[in-house]
Every structure is written in C-alpha cells, then in structure tokens.
C-alpha cells in the first residue's frame, strides 16, 4: 500500500462521519451476515473473537484494526467471555467516485494511540457541539492508521472490489439485482464497477450473476422435484418464461428438457458451491497479515440479519437508519494483476484483433470503430443490418417482431439469437452484459449512456420531424461496416425492380392526375408529404414517382395534421389510405365528408397496411421490396 497515495486521497476527499459506537458482546452472541451499510473502521480493544469479512477470516485477540467499504458482509463470533470493539461509520468520496473500497486487518504496533483517539471520539459523538472536534480526532486516527500501514507494507494487501461483488452476488442471488443496484451498494458508477469487475474476472457482474443463478437452478432441477416456476423464483427470476429462455440460451435446452434428459442419463450436475472457483474463473487467492487466516467457499442461503442470544439493542444500533447514508470506495489489488497475467495470451489476441479499426463520420463527429465488429447492438435498423449479413446480438424489442419479417422469410432461429434490450433507451444492464464491440443509436439523447458501455455510432433515424430517404438510410448503415459495395449492389437491383414497376404502371394514372397518401387517427388526419414522409409515401412518391398534389409538395415536416372537415382540400385523384388505426379509419370512411370526396366516388381509394404491424412502418431494404409489390398490385388490380 502506497502511503503517499492514501494521504493524497484522504486530503482530497470529502468526509462525513455517520456514527461512532462501542459494542460489547458476550460469548454465545453472534453478529451474523451483517451487511455493512457504510465504510467502517473497527478496533477491537478487549477479548477475542472469530471475525469473517466476506470470504476472509481473522482471529481477533486484543487490539486489532479492520477496515472495509460499504456492502461487505461481516460476521463476529466471540471466543472469550467478553469481546469489546469500537466501530466508526463514515463516508468519504472524491468527485462522486469512492476510492476507498479496500479491506485490511492488522495488529497495530501502537494500539494505545488509536484507542485513545477512538475512545474520545465515542465520548464526544453524542454532543452536537463536539462534532467538529470528533472529526478532527477522526483525521488524527486516520493519520495513525496510515503510519501503521506504512510500517507493515509487506504484510497488508488490499482486496479487489470484484471479490466483494462476488460475495454479494453469492449471498443475494435470489434477490432482485441489477448493475445499477450493485453500483449503488458499492458506490461506483455502473460503468466503472462493470469495468473493474470485468478486468478481474473476464466477464460483467450481470453475466456472473446469470451463470451463478443458472448453476443453482441446475442443481435444483437435478436434486428436487420443484416445478420450473418454483425454481425460477428461488434463483431470482419472477418471470418463468424469461428464466426458461435464458436457461435455454445458455444450456441449449429448456429447463424441463434438461431435467428429463439428465435424470434419464443418471448424470449429476456439479454443485454450485464449487462454481465460482471452477466454472467461471480460476481460484481467487487473497492474503492478509493475520497468520490464522484461511480461505474457503461458504454455502450461502437466505439472508438472515442478527441472531443473538443477548440484547437486541446491539442489533438495533448497528442497523441504525442513519447508517444507510454511508458509502464505500474503490480499489483493486494485486489479485487483479495476477488475473491479468494469467489471461495475458488471450488478452493479447483480443487486442490484436481489435487493433484493426475504421473511422466513421457521424453527426457527433468522427468515431473510431472496429473494422469488422462481431458483437453489434442497435436500437434501430434491423432490416438494414440483416440485409448486410449482420445479425445483431441485441436489439430494441420492437425490432424483434417487425411486420415484414415473416413475409421476408427471416428464419425464426435468427431472431431467437438476438437479445431483447427493451424500448428506448436500451436496457443498459442487459446491454453491458452483452459486451458489444459496437452500438448503433438512433436517438441523440441516449447516445451518452451508450458511450459509457462501448463504442457508439449515432445514426439518426429521424431528422427533426422528417426522415432521410430510405436508400440514404441504407447507405448510412453500410458505411459503418465498410459494406458500401454490398449496399450499392442491392440498391442497383432494387432500382431495376422500380424501373420494371414503373413500366407496368405506365398509363394507369393519366397526365394531370395526382396522388395523395393519408392516415387516420382518433384525433387527427395525417396527410403525408411528397418528401420526408413515411408509411409507404417514399415508395409512392420518390420511387414510383407518382405525382403528388401541390399541398403534398409544400409540407416541410414530412406530413401535415389536419381535421377531417378540411381533408377534401388536400386530396388528389387517387388516394392511398394507410390503415394504421382500423377503428379511426372505419369511422372516417363512414362520414358524409369522406363519401363526398371525388376519389371515393370514382373508386380510386387504395386501403393498405395492417394496424401499424406491417412492412410500411419501416423503410429497410426488406420493407421497401414488399412495399413496392403491394403498391403496384393495388394499382394494377383497379385496371382489370
């Protein structure tokens, strides 16, 4: 431990004292699985006890000093008739990041100096007018601790925050845990905590949580007759469907099929108690100065707070609500470096592969991206990606069930490989878990969040209230991946199909006649513009070049919202009606205003679309191909 670094941190930190307590325990009392609510210094002053902090154990006799950050689990079992200790709860942070997340325990060379300081702090703590004096004593206490640490440099090691996260997950895996909740417990940003954990273990905290939960579930499937739903709930999944989906994704088969198959084959699954040291990563070794320490994995069960045979007041004091204001701090130890060394060969390979990059221009400036990204996540552009041969690892919920997919014969197996990342903005926890090497975001306000997780390209789907032309959209996506050639090949083929379609439609719409595109909603009628519109208007106006009305030419925002009463003023000789809202469309078409429109009387109205779940919602290559066929067939059918 570098004392100069510690002195600098303490000098720069904002410090808040939360509580100072003296605790007396007698033999037979147990402090069990106490989740530390703030950073602490614990100084034992009398008697002996076995103390466990996360996975490390210490034998306390006489004066011992212990430090830990928020979120660690503390157990104390007195081994003498009386065991007395003082405990200081505090919070210290620098620029919202807590750099004091270290655990250590040692026997001080000058214990009386520490004892005098902490005893005086305790005596004065409850007198409000003495709080400033208490804080000055706390700094003196810190100064003495740092001097002790400096003298014992070779014997004190700091514990990686990753080890504490692992212990927390093993304890609370059945409870709702998210990356944000872990970050709150350990007082880190979600991104920073995930980065530290991944550096140490090679995976994200949520990926570790999922693997640990599934190993627990595997054991329960093999050793109990509990239903799949009961097992899902016991390992932290309230949604049995989601549990089955993620189990199948990781194990290759559903939980029920796995149980049947394995039981029939008389195979016994590995015990999850060995999981963290074998299934996920190599055994974690941490060293402390206490020669009586030993390291082992412990079975974790339900959370129990205090089980004591004496006064429950002690528990109440330690659970004092004010302590919940505390926070912890950060730090990584030598074990992380050892892990990095063990993974050296693999990491070097990854670095070599990722060294090939490209520069992509975006509205937010140039971005350096992998030349051949393998793990792409996106909140838009599903059809564009698939047409380029890119299957994303994660996408927005809406993209996984777009209306064109079945008509375009997209294999169901392809879509099942893609993780559902929710709506805008994408679920940051799941996104972090997927570890994407490239993220495509289409909404400006979400980009900063995505950039904290990985390389992000901002490619706006909408520009103001208008949208870029569909072919330009496809070109924009292709440039991100260096697949401009593939995009232009498809565009050439598509434009040839458009030319053939225009030839078929020659003479259907006479010279001087015009075309309108409208869509009805409960509160308004939308007339689509000749440029920048949606719902097939780009295919009608820009691709097939059907003639728009003057009003459609002069809409700056891609559409105009009007009332039904003025609709006749906007309509041409041919009217395409996008049936997004079937109820609103039917209601409008039953009105006298609608029935009096010339195009309606002449039978030149074309109803298309299916309740906002069809190929006219998006403008990807698959949708454009389907739109072209639909519009051409509608017009040709009227000439028979």
From TrEMBL:
<keyword id="KW-0805">Transcription regulation</keyword>
<dbReference type="InterPro" id="IPR051313">
    <property type="entry name" value="Bact_iron-sidero_bind"/>
</dbReference>
<dbReference type="InterPro" id="IPR020449">
    <property type="entry name" value="Tscrpt_reg_AraC-type_HTH"/>
</dbReference>
<keyword id="KW-0175">Coiled coil</keyword>
<dbReference type="InterPro" id="IPR009057">
    <property type="entry name" value="Homeodomain-like_sf"/>
</dbReference>
<keyword id="KW-0813">Transport</keyword>
<keyword id="KW-0804">Transcription</keyword>
<dbReference type="InterPro" id="IPR018060">
    <property type="entry name" value="HTH_AraC"/>
</dbReference>
<keyword id="KW-0732">Signal</keyword>
<feature type="domain" description="HTH araC/xylS-type">
    <location>
        <begin position="163"/>
        <end position="261"/>
    </location>
</feature>
<feature type="coiled-coil region">
    <location>
        <begin position="484"/>
        <end position="511"/>
    </location>
</feature>
<protein>
    <recommendedName>
        <fullName>AraC family transcriptional regulator</fullName>
    </recommendedName>
</protein>
<dbReference type="Pfam" id="PF12833">
    <property type="entry name" value="HTH_18"/>
</dbReference>
<feature type="domain" description="Fe/B12 periplasmic-binding">
    <location>
        <begin position="373"/>
        <end position="639"/>
    </location>
</feature>
<comment type="similarity">
    <text>Belongs to the bacterial solute-binding protein 8 family.</text>
</comment>
<dbReference type="Pfam" id="PF01497">
    <property type="entry name" value="Peripla_BP_2"/>
</dbReference>
<keyword id="KW-0238">DNA-binding</keyword>
<dbReference type="InterPro" id="IPR002491">
    <property type="entry name" value="ABC_transptr_periplasmic_BD"/>
</dbReference>
């Amino acid at each position: 431990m570098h004392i100069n670094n510690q002195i600098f941190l303490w000098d720069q930190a904002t410090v808040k004292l939360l509580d100072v307590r003296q605790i007396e325990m007698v033999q037979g009392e147990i402090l069990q699985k106490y989740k530390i609510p703030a950073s602490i210094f614990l100084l034992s002053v009398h008697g002996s006890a076995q103390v466990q902090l996360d996975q490390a154990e210490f034998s306390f006799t006489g004066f011992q000093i212990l430090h830990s950050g928020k979120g660690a689990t503390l157990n104390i079992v007195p081994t003498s008739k009386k065991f007395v200790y003082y405990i200081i709860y505090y919070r210290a942070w620098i620029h919202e990041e807590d750099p004091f997340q270290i655990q250590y325990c040692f026997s001080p060379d000058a214990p009386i100096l520490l004892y005098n300081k902490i005893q005086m702090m305790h005596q004065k703590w409850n007198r409000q007018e003495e709080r400033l004096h208490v804080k000055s004593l706390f700094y003196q206490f810190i100064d003495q601790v740092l001097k002790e640490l400096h003298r014992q440099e070779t014997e004190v090691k700091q514990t990686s925050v990753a080890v504490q996260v692992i212990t927390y997950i093993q304890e609370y895996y059945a409870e709702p845990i998210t990356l944000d909740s872990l970050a709150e417990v350990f007082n880190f940003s979600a991104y920073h905590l995930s980065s530290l954990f991944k550096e140490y273990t090679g995976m994200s905290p949520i990926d570790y949580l999922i693997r640990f939960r599934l190993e627990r579930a595997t054991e329960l499937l093999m050793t109990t007759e509990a239903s799949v739903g009961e097992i899902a709930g016991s390992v932290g999944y309230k949604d049995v469907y989601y549990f089955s989906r993620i189990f199948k994704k990781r194990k290759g088969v559903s939980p029920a099929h796995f149980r049947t198959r394995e039981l029939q084959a008389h195979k016994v699954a590995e015990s999850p108690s060995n999981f963290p040291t074998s299934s996920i990563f190599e055994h974690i070794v941490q060293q402390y100065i206490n020669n009586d320490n030993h390291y082992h994995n412990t079975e974790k069960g339900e959370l129990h707070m205090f089980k004591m045979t004496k006064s429950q007041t002690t528990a109440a004091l330690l659970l004092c609500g004010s302590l919940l204001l505390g926070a912890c701090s950060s730090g990584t130890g030598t074990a992380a470096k050892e892990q990095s060394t063990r993974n050296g060969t693999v990491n070097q390979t990854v670095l070599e592969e990722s060294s090939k990059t490209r520069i992509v221009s975006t509205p937010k400036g140039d971005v350096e991206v992998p030349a051949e990204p393998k793990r792409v996540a996106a909140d838009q552009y599903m059809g564009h990606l698939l047409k380029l041969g890119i299957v994303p690892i994660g996408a927005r919920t809406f993209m996984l069930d777009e209306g064109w997919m079945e008509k375009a014969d997209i294999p169901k197996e392809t879509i099942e490989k893609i993780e559902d990342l929710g709506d805008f903005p994408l679920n940051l926890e799941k996104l972090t878990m997927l570890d994407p090497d490239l993220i495509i975001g289409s909404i400006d306000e979400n980009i900063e969040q995505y950039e904290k997780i990985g390389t992000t390209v901002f490619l706006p789907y909408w520009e103001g209230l208008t949208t870029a032309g569909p072919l330009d959209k496809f070109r924009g996506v292709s440039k991100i991946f260096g697949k401009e050639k593939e995009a232009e090949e498809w565009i050439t083929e598509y434009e040839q199909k458009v030319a053939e379609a225009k030839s078929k439609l020659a003479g259907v719409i006479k010279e001087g006649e015009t075309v309108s595109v409208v869509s009805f909603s409960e509160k308004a009628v939308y007339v689509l513009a000749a440029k920048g519109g949606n719902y097939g208007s780009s295919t009608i106006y820009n691709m097939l070049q059907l003639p728009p009305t003057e009003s459609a030419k002069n809409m700056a925002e891609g559409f105009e919202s009007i009332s039904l009463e003025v609709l006749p003023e906007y309509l041409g000789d041919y009217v395409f009606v996008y049936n997004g809202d079937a109820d609103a469309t039917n209601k409008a078409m039953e009105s006298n205003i609608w029935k009096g429109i010339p195009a309606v009387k002449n039978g030149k109205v074309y109803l298309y679309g299916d309740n906002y779940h069809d190929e006219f919602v998006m403008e990807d290559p698959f949708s454009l191909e389907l739109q072209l066929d639909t519009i051409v067939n509608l017009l040709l059918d009227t000439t028979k």
